[in-house]
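Checklist before submission:
- one chain only
- standard amino acids only
- sequence pasted in full

Submission:
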Amino acid sequence: NKGGNFRVTHRNDPVPRLPPVVLGFVHISPEYFISTPNDVVPTANDITRYDGAINLFGNSGNNPLKTDLSAHGWYFNEVGACGGGGFEFKKE
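Returned file contents:
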């Protein structure tokens, strides 16, 4: 829906896990989780939607001890860029 909120997460990116639920914080829903490795352009099949402010799937379902800051930089720079050669999300 136009103007709606959602979040995009990627594999072992630690940034979307902060601040954690144990501190009373919850994230917006839905979460669109990108499962491809860094530098691999995802297809629609590589993106899964998870609903609920607290879910144990997607980014939160990954091992919290496995973190990859480059996972954040890769997809965040591509998704957050206006224009350019990155991928884009389209609602059909």
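Reviewer check: The chain has a mean pLDDT of 80.
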